[in-house]
Amino acid sequence: MNAAAALIAEKGFKRTSVDDVIERAELSGKSHFYHYFKSKEELGLEVLGRQFEAFAERGLVILREPLIHPIERLHLFIDSLVALQTERGFKVGSPFGNLATEMADLHEGFRERLVLVFDRWAAQLEALLWEARPHLTSDVDTRRLSRFLIATLEGALMMSKVNRDAEMLRAIAADLKRFVATHVREGATV
Q1: H helix intervals, 12-138
Q2: Could you give all domains of the chain from N- to C-terminal order, each with its CATH number?
């Protein structure tokens, strides 16, 4: 699984072959691969699921930290994505965005799994925004705002991967935080 995830991040799903996975994982042959997976697509779906679970454990956990103000948690989450992308040298981007652009139109199973991934991510952000409602303006649609946050972050990760520009990513993150601030009630403490 780790070998497949690394290869898919480096080369994309379509350009990663079963033979590549076997070689990277140092398996003795295709029989080992097919013992665990019926197809490359099944492997890809499993990798996608595990990547989201890891993201939920490491990244989204920040959104649920009850001792930190909800808006501050959102800022920390955005900062963590910037730090992770910078740490990876802008070579990976978002595994979810990468697969969405590569596979959503080509494989219905990937499209359906990606819908679930983005829905789960949006639900986490929406829960955070719902918790922050006493501090937000009355016209905030938490569902819409959660999806806007994801779209902006995914776009920022893609742009930073293409441009390999840390400053661009930091600037987009700062702009996104300022945008969220426009929805905070005047006088609310954050």
Answers
A1: 18-25, 30-36, 40-58, 70-87, 95-103, 108-131
A2: 42-181 (1.10.357.10)
